[in-house]
Design goal:
- Strand 3 and strand 4 (60-67) form a beta hairpin.
- Helix 5 runs antiparallel to helix 11 (229-238) and helix 10 packs across helix 11.
- This protein has helices at residues 17-21, 80-86, 93-98, 104-112, 123-131, 138-152, 169-173, 177-182, 188-200, 214-221, 229-238, 250-259, 268-278, 284-297; strands at residues 2-7, 30-31, 48-53, 60-67, 70-75, 155-158, 161-164.
- It has 2 domains: 2-112, TATA-Binding Protein; 123-227, Hypothetical protein, domain 2 (Endonuclease III, domain 1).
- The strands form 2 sheets. A 5-stranded antiparallel beta sheet has the order 1-5-4-3-2. The chain has a two-stranded antiparallel ribbon with strand order 6-7.
- By secondary structure, it is of the alpha+beta class.
- The N and C termini lie far apart (47 Å).
- The relative contact order is 0.13.
- It is globular.
- Helix content is 42%, strand content 12%.
- The structure holds a DNA duplex (15 and 15 nucleotides).
DNA sequence: TATCCAAGGTAAGTT
DNA sequence: AACTTACCTTGGATA
């Protein structure tokens, strides 16, 4: 077992592991205590989270926990760089906030979730998990990914337990639609299978979008089955380093209606451009994630 | 208890 | 290009 500690004070703008991983950005981590996200009962804010990586081709489990101003990781391999990469620990949150307009909603959201960072998911896992996200509750999207791991992922031993790596494109391409529907994927089942086959066959690779300008990259990703503009934006923002991407989901649309009504231009492309500009451009996706988390967590009393 | 409805939308068919 | 409609499943809201 290898391990390492990262001092939160060394990270510009701080770090909050819980809000980073439980804000609906990534469905590729899970809590070691088995408790669902959004279940705050008996929780002190220092839960351990697990995920899997493939640093040298073979999958390994990584455990991360935040306590007393420190982020501690443990794994069978040296996971220091993987942790920094996956949790975007090198992002400068001070610079990002400075580049964000100081309207009341954004100020409140940034204050409420200080230290929340974007994630950087592996491209294929991000692609599949957001295909699964269509018209689906956050907790169930998360459950689906766990089901996919258990059913099709390669077993990995860690700390006396058996976990499963996220399935490879080939593993999901080999699944039958019926198997996927049995995991409650519903109409998303054929989307996942067909997209996985496209990647497994080398017909397309979501990571290739990285070489394109933002809007072209978004168009390129919609080539995958089950991927429209919104899911494409999620992959660009949460995996491919397009920090300006603003996924227009139901919550952001609600926010636009209430706070930025002039940004509603009737179609995705033009509304996207308008809200992206309003949220500061370069880091608009970061601002989007803070707003998403704030609005969604205040749905019963607010909105 | 039964029914309705929205959930981090997309694909396919019409106008 | 803009507008409709169908699509799986489920937990919580509503009657």
């Amino acid at each position: 077992m290898e391990s390492g500690v990262i001092d939160v004070d060394s990270l510009a703008g701080g770090f909050d592991l819980q809000s980073t991983l439980e804000s609906g950005q990534s469905y590729l981590w899970w809590r070691e205590d088995g408790r669902d996200y959004e279940d705050d009962s008996q929780y002190g804010g220092d839960a351990s989270y697990l995920t899997t990586t493939r640093e040298d081709g073979t999958p390994a489990v990584v455990r991360v926990r935040q306590t007393d101003g420190q982020v501690r990781w443990e794994s069978a391999v040296d996971a220091e760089s993987a942790v920094r990469r996956r949790l975007r620990l090198d992002d400068d949150l001070v610079e990002i906030r400075d580049a964000t307009p100081a309207d009341e909603l954004l100020e409140t959201a940034f204050d409420t979730y200080r230290g929340m960072r974007l994630v950087r998911d592996p491209p294929f896992g991000a692609l599949v998990s957001f295909i699964c996200s269509a018209q689906m509750h956050v907790t169930r999207i998360h459950g689906m990914q766990q089901s996919l791991r258990a059913a099709f992922g390669t077993p990995v031993e860690f700390d006396g337990e058996t976990y499963h790596a996220y399935p490879t494109p080939a593993q999901l391409a080999d699944a039958t639609e019926e198997q996927l529907r049995d995991l409650s994927l519903g109409y998303r089942a054929p989307y996942v299978k067909r997209t996985a086959k496209m990647v497994a066959d080398g017909e397309a690779d979501p990571a290739d979008a990285r070489e394109l300008p933002y809007e072209e990259a978004r168009d390129a990703l919609t080539e995958f089955v089950g991927v429209g503009d919104k899911v494409a934006d999620c992959v660009l923002l949460f995996s491919l380093d397009y920090l300006e991407a603003v996924p227009l989901d139901t919550w952001i649309r609600k926010t636009i209606t209430e706070y930025y009504p002039d940004c509603d231009r009737g179609n995705y492309t033009d509304t996207s451009r308008a809200i992206r500009e309003r949220l500061g451009g370069k880091y608009a996706g970061y601002a989007q994630t803070y707003v998403f988390q704030f609005i969604r967590n205040h749905r019963s009393t607010d909105v």
